[in-house]
Fold:
Amino acid sequence: MSIDYFLTFENQIHNFLFGLLILTFLLHRKDDSFLSTIVVLCLISFMGIAVSPSLLEVSSKPHILSKLAWHGSHALIVLFGIGLLQLLHEQRQITIGIYGKVVIHAYAIIIILHCIRFMVKAVIGLQSTIFRDIYQYGIFGINIFVVVIGLVGLFAITFQKIILINQSNIEVKTWSDKPTD
Structure:
């Protein structure tokens, strides 16, 4: 697969994340860890899309610093996302939810993939297709996973809310309730 495909896919992931953010505002309407996580994901996705074209141009050069620019910049953006997510939760005094924890772990794996790919390609000088494929498909898969888990989480929250609304509308009669004549 070419890098153009992944940049296009990166744009699609951003669109899905933005759609997830809008759905979260419309369906969830609660300022909590889930919403904070979606906001950070959208911000990080936007930052990645904004810098990728210029980084791609720089990284096409054969120098080690050009490879460091690509992998280092993306790893720092993701690290910034992890830090921002934790900071938002600390400042608002809310606990990081399951989705936030999943995103933090997924982003940590992305950072590791960037570091390994840089080490293999630039430091060791190995041009292995195995490591390239692990890197490309790994980041591709993690991004899909994060969006799908976000959608599942949003639907679970919405479904739970529907159940609670339905339960509050049902009158429960007990044995002590006698019909009035």
Notes: The chain has one domain: 3-169. Residues 3-169 form one domain. The CA atoms of residues 50 and 100 lie 23 Å apart. Residues 129-169 form the longest helix (41 residues).
